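Figure 2 data, in text form.
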Amino acid sequence: MYRKVPGLVVTSFVATTAAALSLSVGAAHANPLGSIDFTPPTDPVETPFCSIEYPDPNQFDRIDVSDVTVSSPADGQATFTFHTRSQTTAPYTQAASVTWANLDSGISGVGDTSARIGAGETTLTVPVQNTGTGRVTAVTRVTNTADNGQDVTTLDCVSEYTVP
């Protein structure tokens, strides 16, 4: 879409904008070559950490899963989120926890949260952990308790994440 005028070339604004937008798609919200990025960053970005498969405490032959993600809302901070998918026919209580250690600085800490789990997906987010920057190893754990208080399942997983 060019229009020729003696001594002047006019380029369509739409074509220029579309080209600039196509440069920034998938570029992790960078601003390459001075392009305009109309999509705000969805901070913090959740990174898969590990998955915990465990028996439903109400029916031990049914397997539920908590996929754990980690994100960094700010430098030196980490947030652990448990995305629990359950097929339960009777709700139960889930306690989610994280025990972490910064392998570079030596600091460590613990965080936890809990929620009622029903059929479908439930999201539990451990409050922000001030881990400091560097390599962080963590044990994430779910403890699931049936309403009778006696049937309990506990499982965990371990992984590492680099906190910016």
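Caption note: The helical segments are 13-24.
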